[in-house]
Structures are given as structure tokens and as C-alpha cells.
Design a protein that fits this description.
Two copies of one chain form a homodimer.
Chain A lengths: L16 H10 L1 E5 L4 E3 L7 E7 L2 E6 L5 E7 L4 E2 L8 H5 L8 E4 L4 E7 H10 L1 H24 L4 H15 L7 E3 L4 H8 L3 H13 L3 E4 L2 E4 L2 H8 L2
Antiparallel strand pairs in A: 1-8, 2-7, 3-6, 3-8, 4-5, 4-7, 9-11, 10-11
Helix pairs in contact in A: 3-4, 5-8, 6-7
Chain A binds a DNA duplex through α7.
DNA sequence: CGTAACCTTGATTAAGATCAATTCTCGTGG
DNA sequence: CCACGAGAATTGATCTTAATCAAGGTTACG
């Protein structure tokens, strides 16, 4: 792994080799096993992270102790940028904590910590980076917006939406076969439900002839009906 | 109304008089009656808004046609900044729409439209503004984060949380009296429920001796218990 | 005053959570 | 190679919360 991985991070795409190397040399790499935490939401804020390999889930803990997954971050994606811009002074004084919890969902997950001090310096010098960062935060806001919208619908709707999205994301060949890359438990948490309800909803979709399922592989047999459920 | 109102907007606080006047002279003021729309989420994006007077509610329409209020914007607050940073070219080509709906909740509500073209120009010239904007977007993200967290709890919890927050926001004198400044209907929508359930929850709180209610005025009689319900 | 919007209350229903067993799957060690 | 055990997934019965349906009652304002 070297500084070239940073070039794929949208926000850093405006930097030259020298700047990239500098960021890379000051960043802290971390390797994680499946289930290992990057941070808890109670920890003091150090800076934001770049995913280099594997996958990270960002989640809240509900009152009953259960996880509620907000999103997954894949390679070259970033997470925990937000506290960076909430009054710099407070960050320096360790007053800030992370906004949620972050855990690796795959073994051999690798992340880079970009410390806020260093990054803030960069931000002051390089105007382009702030503009990129504005783009990144906007994207995050769109995602949360979409997340909230999805939450207004029932579980079959949410699952249908997820399947359609996954189908679009993976490949794009018209064979409607999707591999669910996360555990069913994580999927349930992401959809805001529990394992049993997810299982029942999958079964209902199968009984209604919308999909066929074999372990982690789902074949969509009636994309039209599925789309109808997905969009209201 | 003149350009000095803009000085109170956090993002514009770094500008000098000349710059403020320029923004003001290029902005479009709009007066609204209670219930009038600023924009629908289907409309092409023109730019973001500053609230000068009154109050704006930002909301989504659910599948059944009901409103789901995401937040309220008060004087000197801004809304609809997000699409501004999602690929400038698309905005110019009218490809973008608003992320939600915006409606005045009070009569004599006044807003200013800051067109994206003008603002983007400003952003390129003035680095400080991007940094302020990063702060503004972060705040918005925090709010959505908090919103999502609240949604994981039941209705009594959400109402208790709302009452405690309102109590803190208004005054701060230790007489625990709160005026609910929005309609009960809007409050229900904000809490993600319906009028009947809100009414019943208020009743339950009264029966349990937590509050006393008279129209729009709520007196908190047992702040300790209310806090216990509010925080899990 | 009168009427429309706002609010409350009661009875019923439905979606999904909870509780409680099983069954399935797969990696590990004998 | 098989047997074991743990975690993952499924299934059924029951329970809870809040939505829905249906009246009434209250308030505010022209």
C-alpha cells in the first residue's frame, strides 16, 4: 500500500503527488479483522478515515442494545468527516466525539486515519479541497435524506428497494442475479428490522414468485413487480 | 429590510459591507402567508434560501400523502443549500430538483432566495465562505443524525425529548413552562406520528403527573421523570 | 354567532417485535 | 472423512405499539 491509493479518494483527486505523499506519510494505517471496531461513538475525535480495503459499517446502538446500521463504506470512501468542521477549537481540545460507531464487516479490512490537525492545515491552503469536501458532505446528506425517506415505508418496500439497488450496483448485466455481500443479520439491521422479519419477507417474496433465493444468492424472477413494490 | 439581515447569517458573517450589499441586491425576496409553499421537491433547483422572518417547515410526502416534517427553519437560518454542491454543471442545466418540500408555518414569513450562480462565484473567490459552508452542512448532518437516532425510540420518548429540548431552548428560567409554537398537527408530523397518537401521549403524560397542559402551554411538573423517559 | 379548523376520545386493526423452538450450514478437530 | 458444536437462518404462536376508523367536543375568528 502506498500514497497512490489516496488518488482514488474523490476529495484528494485535486492534489499533486507531493501533497498526496505528505498526507499519506502523516496518516495512520490500521488493519482490522471482521467485527473489530474502528471507533465507538463515545471516543474523542481524532480525524476522519479512508477505507482502503474491505468494508466498514457505521451504526448506532438502540436503547435495547441492538445495532442500527446507517451505512456501509467501501474502498476509497471516507467516513467520520463531519466533526471536523464543527468548531475547530473544540476538536483540538478533545471535546468532540464520533457521531456513530464504526466496525469492519470483513476480515482484512484496511483503513487510514487522517488526523484533523493535518487536514485542517491542508484545507486552509488548498481551496479546491474545501470544494471537494462540500461535495462529499452533500453526498452524505443526500444519503441520509434518502435513508429517512426509506424509513417512511414498510419492510417489504425497503427490502425490494435494497434488492433493486443491489442489482443495479452489481454488474448491470441483465441477468438479475444478486449476491448479498453482508450477513442477513446486518441486512436486517440496515433495513431497520430484525432477522425473523427479514426472513419472513424474503419468504413472502419467494412465495409470490418475485425472487428465488439460495444462501447469499438472490435471483430476481419478476423485476417488474419488485419495482412496483420498491417505488411506492 | 436591507442587506444587514444577511450579517446575522453565520455563513455570511465573514463578508464585508460591499459583498453583503452585492448578495442582497442579487437575491430575490419572497413574502409568504401561512401554508404557502416556497418550493416542492419536484421543482428545478434555483438556489438556497435564508429565512428573514417567520418559520419554514421542511418536509417529505409519505406514500399515503401525509407530511413528514424533517425540520423547522427559523430567522437567519438557511435551507436547501445541499444541491448547490452536487456537480455545478448539472445545476446550470436545471437538472437538479429540491431535496424536499418547504412551506411557511406562520403568516408574514419572509425568505430570500440566493441564486446558485451568484453564490458559486462568491464561493470561488472567498475561501472563508466555503469553510463556513462546511460548518453549516456539518450542522445539518448532525441534525439528521440526531433525527435518525430519535426515530429509533417510541413516541413517548420522542415527545419527552421534544418537550425537554423546547424547555431548554425557550428562556432557560427554571419555571418549566413551554409554549408549543407550532400546531399540534405539525408537531405530530415532526415526531413521526399522527394527531390522535400525539393527543393520547400528551394525555398519558398528564395522567402520570409529568406535565400540565392548557392549549399551547405545557407546564412540566416532573422534569426528572420526563428526562428519564427522554433519555432511554 | 356560526362554521371550519383543531383537538380529543373510544373501538378496532395491522405490522412488526418478541418469545420459543427447530433446522441448516459450515468450520474444526478427532 | 465424519461428527460435533456454534452461529445463522427459519418457522410458528403470541404480544405490543401505534395506525386506522369513527364520532364528538373545543376553539378561534370572520
Amino acid at each position: 500500500m502506498d500514497s497512490s491509493v489516496l488518488r482514488n479518494v474523490s476529495m484528494f483527486s485535486v492534489l499533486n503527488d507531493k501533497e498526496l505523499s505528505k498526507i499519506y506519510s502523516f496518516s495512520t494505517p490500521k488493519s482490522l479483522d471482521k467485527g473489530e471496531m474502528v471507533f465507538f461513538e463515545t471516543e474523542p475525535y481524532l480525524g476522519f478515515y479512508v477505507v482502503v480495503e474491505g468494508c466498514i459499517k457505521i451504526f448506532k446502538i438502540k436503547g435495547d442494545g441492538r445495532e442500527q446500521i446507517i451505512h456501509f463504506v467501501h474502498p476509497y470512501g471516507t467516513f467520520a468527516e463531519v466533526p471536523m468542521f464543527e468548531q475547530y477549537e473544540k476538536i483540538l481540545n478533545d471535546q468532540f466525539t464520533y457521531p456513530a460507531n464504526a466496525m469492519a464487516t470483513e476480515k482484512d479490512t484496511k483503513v487510514l486515519l487522517i488526523r484533523s490537525g493535518l487536514f485542517y492545515e491542508l484545507l486552509r491552503k488548498n481551496h479546491e479541497i474545501s470544494l471537494k469536501m462540500l461535495g462529499a458532505l452533500s453526498k452524505r446528506l443526500r444519503h441520509l435524506n434518502n435513508y429517512i425517506e426509506t424509513r417512511m415505508k414498510d419492510i417489504p418496500h425497503r427490502l425490494a428497494e435494497f434488492l433493486v439497488q443491489e442489482c443495479r450496483r452489481s454488474g448491470g448485466s441483465d441477468i438479475h442475479k444478486v449476491e448479498i455481500e453482508i450477513t442477513k443479520h446486518d441486512l436486517a439491521s440496515y433495513l431497520g428490522t430484525i432477522d425473523e422479519t427479514l426472513s419472513r419477507t424474503f419468504k413472502k417474496f419467494q412465495d409470490d414468485g418475485l425472487i428465488q433465493m439460495k444462501g447469499k444468492f438472490v435471483t430476481i424472477t419478476d423485476i417488474k413487480k419488485l419495482l412496483r413494490i420498491a417505488e411506492e
